[in-house]
Amino acid sequence: MSFDAIDAWWWPFLFILVAGWLATDTWRYLGVYFGGRISEDSDVLVLVRSVATALVAAVIANLIFFPGGALAESPLALRLAASIAGFAAYIFGGRRVLVGIVVAEAVFVGGWFALG
Description:
The protein is an all-alpha fold. It contains 4 helices and no strands.
């Protein structure tokens, strides 16, 4: 069965819903099932955390260096300054994610208004 299998207005929505559910929830259920049996210090879990962290870092780097939409109109230096300030606030603010996000956004928005 493919995306073009049925010619009805509701088919693309159902296809995306089912395909999205199968792609994500299957792995979630397996993670819950096996997660209770894996030690937090095991090599497998360290590898999974490392890969997840690398993927998040790659997405952030992609947003900084190759942005799309309205973010592409901002200067690279401003995007770098906001991310560095947010990371520094995260480290020095007690490793609280919310502090890092708020500071990065404040630096970016403040810099955007100062430049524009």
